[in-house]
Here is the input.
Amino acid sequence: MTTTKKAFVLLLALCCIGATIIPAHATEAQPMTDTANKSALILTINSSGQASCFVVVNTRTASNRVEVSMSLNQINGKAPLKTWSLSGTGSFSATKTYYVVKGYDYQITAKITVKDSSGKLIESFTTNSSVVRY
Here is the structure.
């Protein structure tokens, strides 16, 4: 992927985040505390079948550690197609890519864990992206 395409994908993802970041109290299935006040998962698939999996988590305390286990799943598939283990502190974001096959529905699932600077668990929750058909 060229540098221009990478920059465009990143810019597109950031624009989508501005429109789709969900406040903690508005998450669907997993209530979030005041620690991780915003999170989002965004899945896009380009015409070549490259799935871009984007996760962002913002915590209220910059020293908090964020651990993410993010999986790209084919709906009705038996196992995740690809799983990534990611980590960072405070406001954390990452994009991972993987090529997928046409004719299926895909979704990202992420288990997000937030710990304080001493390693004490503050919260842990699982969230899903929207389903994308390719």
